[in-house]
Every structure is written in structure tokens, then in C-alpha cells.
Amino acid sequence: MKALMITSLTGPDALAIQEVPEPAQKSGQRMVRVKAGGLNFADLMTTKGGYPGTPPAPLIAGREFSGVEETGGRVMGYTQWAAFADKTAATSNMLWPVPEHWSDEQAAAFPVNYFTAYLGYWQAGMTEPRAPGRQYRVLIHAVAGGVGTAAVQIGNLLGIDMYGTSSSDEKLARVKALGLQHGINYKRNDYEEVVKNFTRGEGVDAVFEMLGGEHTAKSLRCLRDFGRVIQYGTATGKSPKLDLRAMYAKSGSVQGLWLTYLAPKREIMEPAWQQLSQWISQRKLTPQIGQVFPLERAVEAYKLLEDGKNYGKLVLKIG
Ligand SMILES: NC(=O)c1ccc[n+]([C@@H]2O[C@H](COP(=O)([O-])OP(=O)(O)OC[C@H]3O[C@@H](n4cnc5c(N)ncnc54)[C@H](OP(=O)(O)O)[C@@H]3O)[C@@H](O)[C@H]2O)c1
Q1: What is the pLDDT of residues 90-124, one digit of tens each?
Q2: What are the two backbone dihedrals, phi and then psi, of residue 305, each rounded to the nearest 5 degrees?
Q3: pLDDT, tens only, 220-251
């Protein structure tokens, strides 16, 4: 079969389409003929050997996909590696049925972004009914990206007041159309200042933080009393720095979120899927796709993500 191979852990230029043997189906797995692949920041990190647990090269790229099972059923799924190929063997409890009204590309843009965003709100305590008169506020970094746009759609449904950062006014305009109330172009404005001014010094209940370095400390300074920084990435490549004074000042905390760790936990994923699938059937969630690339142009897609030029999800057409 045809597969997108990471031939060495030296970045996107080492990606190549090659003929490889079909995967063996282990117990607990189902075979899927892949139609489309969702590109994640983690895929980019993997090409550089920077994603935790990356096996030695060569390996098949890709962690998120949609496709068809031998029974004819359409599925979307999540795996660690080996999704960007004609066929992938996927763990049964990480496959979900594709909503009838969604294309293969939309389905491939769903699992990672929406589960991560939903679990972010869940970890921040915002999926529970809130006290009368209580309005939650959240700050979403990279709000125009894959997880960011999913967080805006879900935040809207949960009735949350959202602040979101991006490097581009054009991207922010698109996310505002999705329901983001306060867009912050961080090239022009300091998000810490904006949050402080707009909330009259109170801050936000949660920050969805995926940049690392100084941004963790800055995000802590954006918190309201008992607020939480949900740390789910380090796109800057720098280790998160803490600001303990800011933590003490507001009784704030930093909480990690890693979908890879949570995904096998049925008791966490099942309620999340119940809520997400209900919203999908009510046509309230629509994966945001910036661009679709044929597999032959995968390197271009990876580099677009590397340069932060993507809006929403980049999808690879495979089948
Ligand atoms: N923990 C988990 O389980 C989990 C799950 C999914 C994703 N993640 C993490 O969440 C983050 C977003 O992932 P994604 O796949 O949805 O990507 P994405 O947000 O679609 O793309 C990355 C965006 O981040 C912004 N950015 C800011 N600084 C950047 C930098 N130094 N390099 C590249 N981009 C930068 C860019 O938007 P602007 O130019 O608009 O700022 C860019 O478009 C990543 O850090 C990823 O590792 C974690």
C-alpha cells in the first residue's frame, strides 16, 4: 500500500510517499481504508523527533483520519502513528461513526481538535451547570487554529465569554464569525494587558495554553480567583515557565491535558462523545478546514503549519 513515510526525524522535508506492507490487524483493532487525514501540530513535532514516544524512523506519519471499514461503515479515528496510508489498523474504542452530513475531510478534522477542546472545558470545570449569574471567561491561545476554532464553537454552546489570540486580523475576523467575542492580535497588543483592561482587572477563569515558555507565566497572570491554566502544548518549543506570585495571588493552578493519555480512558471519553455527538446531530459543530491538500503535497501542508499560516485544520486527501 501507499503511505506517507517519515524517513528520518529531521523535519517535514524527510517525508516521502512510499510503498509499504499493509498493517497487521491486532486483537481489539479494526482495519480502515483511509480517505482523509487531519494534520496536527503533533505530526509536525513527530517529524522532528520532538513528540514524546516517537519510534525510530522510518515510520508512517499521521494520527487522525477518516475512512471506511470493511463492513462499509464510515468512521473517524485517532491513533498515535500510521494514519496517513491507504490502510490503518485502529483501536476500536478510538473509532467513532462519521455523522451522515459530514464529508470525509470534515470527519478527519474532528477527533483531536474537538475532544481536546471539550476536555479543556471539562478540566476547567466549565461543562457543569454554573451558578446563577456566574459568567465564565476563557482565554484561548492560537484561537484560529485547529483546537482553537473547536474551542470557540464549544465555548459558544457553553455560554462562555471568550478571549482569543492570533497573529493575524484576517484569521481573527474568521473566528469572530464563529462566535469569538474578543479577538486579540498579539503582534499589536499584549494579551495580558487586554485581558486586564477588558475584565476590569478581574481576569479569566481559564486559559487554554499551548505555547509554553513565558506564556505559561503570562497566562497565570491573566487568571481570575481560583482560575486554571490548562497547559496542553508547547508550540514555541520552550519549557513552560511558572509565575508563583501570580499563582499565590489568585489561588490559581496549572493543569496538564494530554489527549494521548486520556483517550484510552472510556469513562472520560464516552461522556465527552455523548455531549459532542448530541451537538453534532443538532448541527451545532462544524470542523473548520483551512485547506485540503493531496497526499503528494503533504510537505507543503506541514510547512504551512510550521509557519503558523494555517486557519483551522489542514486536511490531507488520501483515498
Ligand atoms: N495535549 C494535547 O492532547 C493536544 C492535543 C491537540 C493539540 N495540542 C497542541 O495544541 C497546539 C495547537 O495544535 P493544533 O494542531 O490545533 O495546531 P494549530 O493551532 O492549528 O496551529 C498552530 C497555530 O499556533 C499558532 N502559533 C503560535 N506560536 C507558534 C509557533 N511558535 N509555531 C507555530 N505556530 C504557532 C499559529 O497561529 P497564530 O499565528 O494565529 O498565532 C498556528 O496557526 C499545539 O501546541 C499542539 O501540540 C495538544
Answers
A1: 999 999 999 999 999 999 999 999 999 999 999 99
A2: -65, -40
A3: 999 999 999 999 999 999 999 999 999 999 99
The residue written with cell numbers 509499504 in the block is 20
CA distance 89 to 84: 11
**What pLDDT shows up at residue 319?**
85
284: left (phi over 0), alpha (psi -120 to 50) or beta: alpha
Q: β-strands 29-39, 223-231: how paired?
A: unpaired
Element (H, E) at 265: none
How far, in Å, from the CA of 132 to the mean position of ligand 1? 34
Residue 43: C-alpha distances to residues 71, 79, 170, 305 (Å): 29, 11, 25, 10
Q: How far does the centroid of ligand 1 lie from the alpha carbon of residue 6, in Å? A: 21
Which whole-number Å values give the CA distances from 171 to 80, 176, 182, 306, in the listed order? 29, 9, 13, 16
Point out the ligand 1 atom lying closest to the alpha carbon of residue 312.
Answer: 20
pLDDT the model gives residue 218: 98
pLDDT at residue 279, as a whole number: 98
Residue 70 Cα to ligand 1 middle (Å): 34
Cα 261 to Cα 77, 114, 161, 313, distances in angstroms: 15, 16, 29, 22
- Per-residue model confidence as pLDDT tens digits over 179-197: 999 999 999 999 999 999 9
